[in-house]
Amino acid sequence: MNTFVNKQIILILSVLLSVLLGSPAYSWDSDQLPPGFTVADPKAPVELDGQVLFYVPINSKTETADQIAQKISERIERLAKDFTFKPQSIEVEDTAYSTDIKAEDKVIVSVWDFVAKIEGRETEELAREYAENIRQGIAAYQQAHSLTNLVAGLIKTALALVVLVALILLLNRGMRRLNQGILASQRIQPVKIGDFEFFTADRIKTVIISLVKVLRLLVILVLLYTYFHLGLSFFPTTQKYALQLYESLLGAIGGIGEAIWHQTPALTFLLVLFYLTRYALKTLRFFFDQVSAGKVTVAGLDAEVAPITFRILRLLIVVFALVVAYPYIPGSESPAFKGISLFLGLLFSLGSSSAIANLIAGISLTYQRSFHVGDVIRVGEATGVVLERRLYITRIKTPKNHVITIPNSTILSGHVTNLSQEVLAGAGLILSTSITIGYDAPWPKVHALLIEAARATKHILPSPAPFVLQTALNDFYVTYELNAYTDAPEIMARIYSELHQNIQDKFNEAGVEIMSPHYRQVRDGHQSTIPADYLSPDYEPPALRLTTVKNQQNKDSE
Questions:
Q1: How far apart are alpha carbons 437 and 441 in whole angstroms?
Q2: Nearest Cα residue to 48 out of 68, 69, 64, 67
Q3: How far apart are CA 200 and CA 208, in angstroms?
Q4: CA distances from 223 to 164, 183, 253, 360 (A)
Q5: Per-residue DSSP letters for 228-256?
Q6: For the segment 164-179, what is each residue's pLDDT rounded down to a tens digit?
Q7: Is-contact 11 38, C-beta < 8 A?
Q8: Of 12, 117, 373, 475, whose CA is between 20 and 30 Å from 546?
Q9: Which tens digits make up the pLDDT trace of 234-266?
Q10: DSSP 503-535
């Protein structure tokens, strides 16, 4: 019984050992693998410092080919990092189950018979090839990472830096001379169509210099890329990064080139549309500049509204060009582009209601011609000179030097008083002021004094002549309204001030009190309200006159 059990145990162990180690004790067909093993697709590379030494072609029951290759690579790298290790000490040793590649009595990798069959090679031959690749790989690693090679890399990097700086300095010097030559060149002529000069020579030179600057920047970027690529390639540790940098650049350039190639028809259309729109706007600008300067006359289009008309047409043309160009923009069909467009459209719809209202109001005001820049207008409680009129807002400057910005929708919804329109037409603006004088003053004399005061005021026009209106006959006084014409409404506050000063002077000189006597005998009458400078030297205040009730009754009975 014990002998039978021992034989069964030995049989089971031999089967397991043959499965794990590929022992010939367990036979299989040449087209099959031992249980638990599969052919890896693709094979896993065993690498040292980026160099492939050989490939692992199988997956085991517990590990994939990549995992097996990773473990072997780590063993080889540990040996390579030990600079006291001699690659020639790596040996190949046959065992009952495999051919082992060993170093210092430690197995690096075991080459099994079925692995050699998969590769179509003899086991020992394949193992010796693997061993030689490992020796060469370790030797190359140790040489590349030696102190001598590190110093050489540093020297090469420093020399490359010196060359880089020298090339950049030479490039800058050459570009400066080239720019000077372009500016001094007489061969660059302006582009003309007839008598109209589309591009001046200076403008063309500026564009060429800008292109030269762009070229200089590109050359510097290429030099910097080349320097970093060379600097990384001088050291084994960073060589893989140099390769990645090279591949990423080529990949980016290739991707951009492929995208451009596929988008060439759309980009060509966009380019043609861009230049057509650009030259259409230039032509419109030239035309409306001529209208603004008065060199071209168009019925119904004044010189003043020409700039605003141009801005409106420019906006319409740009919007039309964008609508036409949208389907041809690369990526316009992508969900991200559509999402951004939807978001921008939502923002515009939510925040543009007042802007659109002001825009429409600005257009309406422009063609209504209710006022112009430089006119004196009154909008609500604000009065001032129009400094600027745009499609959205209008700015006026008050006599107190306050600059007020008024939305055009506010102006359009209210009323505007233009104080300069009749002045420009030659009729002048009427300034009016009221004064109340008692009934004891003859009205012709009051009229004459008021007109005389108006004529003594600067910026009051002699023709049409000033005139006086008696606007009310009140209980105790008469209301006189002086009306005078002026051609300077922008300084009417000063004109009013000077006019009032002259009225005071003229009435004081004539001995007419400016007062509204609502009373009788409320004052004692000892002193006139006229300033003493206007009274005669022998002036005496009149005596107070008192009448008793009895005397008054006697007078009434008589």
A1: 7
A2: 69
A3: 13
A4: 7, 27, 17, 55
A5: HHHHHHTSGGGHHHHHHHHHHHHHHHHHH
A6: 899 989 988 988 888 8
A7: no
A8: 475
A9: 776 676 676 676 667 666 666 666 766 776 787
A10: HHHHHHHHT--------SSSS--SS-SS-GGGS
Structural contact between residues 168 and 223, judged by C-beta atoms closer than 8 angstroms = yes
Alpha carbon distance 364, 376 (integer Å): 19
At position 175, the amino acid (one-letter code) is M
Q: Which two tokens stand for residue 38?
A: 């599969």
- Cα–Cα distance between 267 and 330 in angstroms, integer? 8
The per-residue pLDDT for range 502-528, each reduced to its tens digit, is: 999 999 998 888 876 665 444 555 566
440-456 burial by CB neighbour count: b if 16+ within 10 A, else e? Answer: ebeeeebbebbbbbbee
Give the Cα separation of 243 and 237 in Å (integer).
12
Q: Hey, how many other C-beta atoms are within 10 angstroms of the C-beta on 366?
A: 21
One-letter amino acid at 296 equals V
Residue found under tokens 């890896």: 40
Nearest CA to 408 among 395, 419, 420, 399?
Answer: 395
Sign of CA dihedral 373, 378, 384, 390: negative
Question: Is residue 479 helix, strand or coil?
Answer: strand
| Residues sharing a CB contact under 8 Å with residue 164, sequence separation 6 or more, in sequence order | 223, 224, 227
Cα four-point dihedral sign 356, 357, 360, 361 = negative
Q: What is the pTM of this model?
A: 0.41
Measuring CA to CA, how many Å separate 473 from each of 312, 476, 552?
56, 8, 29
Best CA proximity match to 429, nearest among 417, 439, 440, 438: 417
How far, CA to CA in Å, does 514 sit from each of 396, 427, 445, 471?
37, 31, 13, 17
Extract the tokens encoding 469. 């209106």
The token pair at 395 is 């700015």
Number of alpha carbons in the 13 Å side-chain half-sphere of residue 78: 10
Residue linked to tokens 């061993």: 131
Long-range CB pairs of 458-466, under 8 A, 24+ apart, other chains included: 458/495, 458/498, 459/486, 459/487, 459/488, 459/491, 459/495, 460/431, 460/484, 460/485, 460/486, 460/495, 460/499, 461/428, 461/485, 461/486, 461/487, 464/427, 464/428
Beta carbons of 98 and 110 less than 8 angstroms apart: yes
**219 in Cβ contact with 171 (< 8 Å):** yes
Q: Using CA atoms, how far apart are residues 209 and 217, in angstroms rounded to an integer? A: 12
Cis status of the peptide bond prior to 42, with omega within 30 of 0: yes
